[in-house]
UniProtKB/TrEMBL annotation:
SUPFAM superfamilies: Citrate synthase. One of its GO terms (biological process) is carbohydrate metabolic process. GO terms for molecular function: citrate synthase activity. Pfam families: Citrate_synt, HTH_17. One of its GO terms (cellular component) is cytosol. Pathway: Carbohydrate metabolism; tricarboxylic acid cycle; isocitrate from oxaloacetate: step 1/2. It is an enzyme of class 2 (transferase). It comes from Phytobacter massiliensis. This is citrate synthase (unknown stereospecificity). Keywords: Acyltransferase, Transferase. Its EC number is 2.3.3.16. InterPro entries: Citrate_synth-like_lrg_a-sub (IPR016142), Citrate_synth-like_sm_a-sub (IPR016143), Citrate_synthase (IPR002020), Citrate_synthase_sf (IPR036969), HTH_17 (IPR041657). The gene is citZ. Residues 10-43 form the Helix-turn-helix domain. The keyword Lipid biosynthesis does not apply.
Length: 390
């Protein structure tokens, strides 16, 4: 019988490397993905300590060597639930929307065209921005969540409603969301142009927004898509499905990772790329925004978007230095933060851009789940005290 290796509660970077047999960059990636907890070493604040419990768990999974598909069928913890979907998928390091390579599709497509594709719909009027008074302030997520909560309170169940009606309501919801983030009401313009006008961007900047939103519209069965599907499976209204998905999306391990990268870039602009990189690496602190477990050879969305604009010089130097010293490539969060910095976009612009785009995918998942007619209700695997059965 094999016994577990006895470990102290917290390990140094060197001890983790020896125990797992991986490079420091891999450990940083595990921490950034929330797989390993870390905190500063009280004996030496320039370095970090790592949770032995998390590390032991990772080693056990590695030794078991079970296939992802088997895990997905049997558990929701530590892996993704397996749900049939025709919306998007990954293959050989690329993302596909209904069979179309998203990088090629984003060359010319708009978010409206992306919605038609992902929803399987004809949207005659696009994402109409309602004629309502919205706060004319910098983009701020509180406005969006208040508006969606209000719509949820008065929304109708998705049961016994035709696809055409649901598509029209979904399109109006995307327009409504964009308006709360500052999109101007110009019915003849596409949503990326309306956002660009509201944020004071040029025509070239508007095209960057167009490309970014197409690339961000969906990413297979993310946790936010799963949350939207759970709501939809129970007959919740489309505003409720979207609110469920976006609430999950606000987690820093999901859609709200960009603010951490933006804060890092602010540090770089206040000091220098060399100073910030050296401080992070000497303290064994993972640098947010680099590496992606689904794209070991680099996030193709980040590559495609970064090719269309030039970040500020010190930010470019920072990205190149991190790549050289860690071997990790920038993901889409780095490029979004660089875009916000380059165009001096206001307030919560990165979250606004990401959430308006991803609302298309969340609504696609909600409507696909509605068509299955099945309620998502996983069973709990009880691990509590022994039952006191009479």
């Amino acid at each position: 019988m094999q016994t577990k290796t006895k470990l102290p509660s917290w390990l140094t970077l060197e001890e983790v490397q020896e125990f797992l047999g991986v490079r420091a960059q891999t450990i940083y990636a595990y921490v950034s993905r929330g797989l390993i907890a870390s905190h500063p070493d009280p004996q030496n604040t320039r370095r970090s300590l790592y949770s032995a419990e998390n590390i032991q768990s990772l080693r056990q999974k590695k030794q078991q060597g079970r296939k992802r598909e088997t895990l997905a069928v049997n558990t929701l913890f530590g892996t993704e639930p397996s749900i049939p979907t025709a919306i998007s998928t990954f293959a050989k390091g690329h993302l596909y929307y209904r069979g179309k390579d998203v990088i090629a599709f984003a060359e010319t497509a708009t978010l409206e065209e992306t919605a038609r594709l992902l929803w399987g719909a004809e949207i005659a009027t696009g994402f109409a921005v309602p004629n309502r008074d919205y706060p004319r302030t910098a983009p701020e997520r509180s406005h969006a969540f208040i508006a969606l909560a209000t719509a949820t309170a008065t929304g109708h169940s998705t049961h016994a409603r035709t696809a055409r009606v649901l598509h029209a309501e979904a399109a109006a919801l995307v327009g409504h969301l964009a308006a709360t983030f500052g999109a101007e009401n110009h019915p003849e313009m596409r949503i990326h142009q309306r956002l660009a006008r509201g944020w004071g961007m040029t025509e070239d900047g508007a095209d960057i927004l167009r490309r970014a939103m197409v690339l961000l519209a969906d990413h297979e069965l993310t946790s936010s898509a799963f949350a939207a599907r759970i709501a939809a499976s129970n007959g919740a209204s489309l505003p409720a499905c979207l609110l469920s998905g976006l609430a999950t999306f606000t987690g820093p391990l999901h859609g709200d990772a960009t603010p951490r990268v933006k804060a890092l870039f602010d540090e770089v602009e206040r000091s220098s790329a060399d100073e910030v990189v050296n401080r992070y690496l000497s303290s064994a602190i993972p640098i947010p925004g680099f590496g992606h477990h689904l794209y070991p050879d680099g996030d193709p969305r980040a590559v495609a978007l970064l090719a269309k604009f030039v970040p500020p010089e010190e930010i470019t130097k920072f990205i190149e230095k991190v790549i050289t010293l860690t071997g990790l490539l920038p993901n889409i969060d780095v490029v979004l933060a660089a875009l916000v910095t380059r165009y001096r976009l206001p307030g919560d612009a990165a979250f606004a851009l990401f959430s308006v785009a991803r609302s298309v995918g969340l609504l696609a998942h909600a409507m696909e789940q509605i068509n299955t007619g099945k309620v998502i209700r996983p069973r709990g695997r009880y691990v509590g005290p022994t039952l006191e059965i009479p």
